[in-house]
Design goal:
169 residues; mainly alpha; 8 helices; 75% helix; 0% strand; transmembrane helix; membrane; transmembrane; DoxX; DoxX family protein
């Protein structure tokens, strides 16, 4: 009953639209500032390796595989991350604001938020995770008053053609 309400009610769609535009703006402007301002993730990544999230009782790392990922992949490829992180933030914001591929944008935002949380950054990330889950749970209704209203039927139609062609072959 709750799922049907959240996923189909037009008034819920209105509330979701306001929330997604606000959260989208936050993503967009943070990404844009990094894109135009010479963002460098090296210090952040180094700090995440040097000060990993530790269990207070044992002093052991809570996310040792993530710390190893940062140390052995992200840091050596910091130039790639200097581009991918701001671009990802910008695209998540754009998708949420325009209501285009909103569930995909929300999933991208969730992925980035969890990566920031694994590195020990709290900030607004828990709020963004909460709203990201709400957007994904609401599905189509999140982008009902946005590009998804027009875009998703076209994608479905194209997908059906592709599946039909493969079935005929």
């Amino acid at each position: 009953m709750l799922a049907k309400f959240v996923r189909e009610n037009k008034w819920v769609a209105v509330v979701l639209t306001v929330l997604r535009v606000y959260i989208g703006w936050e993503w967009l402007h943070h990404g844009w500032d990094k894109l135009k301002g010479g963002f460098d993730a090296t210090g952040y990544l180094t700090n995440a390796v040097n000060n990993p999230v530790l269990d207070k009782a044992t002093g052991e790392q809570i996310y040792p595989t993530y710390t190893a990922f940062i140390e052995h992949f992200a840091l050596p490829n910091a130039k790639l991350f200097n581009f991918v992180i701001p671009l990802g933030e910008f695209l998540v914001g754009l998708g949420l604001i325009l209501g285009g591929l909103t569930v995909v944008a929300a999933l991208g935002g969730l992925l980035m938020n969890f990566m920031f949380l694994f590195a020990g950054t709290i900030s607004t990330n828990p709020w963004f995770v909460l709203f990201g889950f709400i957007f994904v749970y609401a599905g189509y209704n999140t982008g009902r008053f946005g590009l998804d209203y027009y875009l998703l039927p076209l994608i479905r139609k194209g997908w059906k053609k592709v599946v039909k062609r493969e079935a005929a072959a």
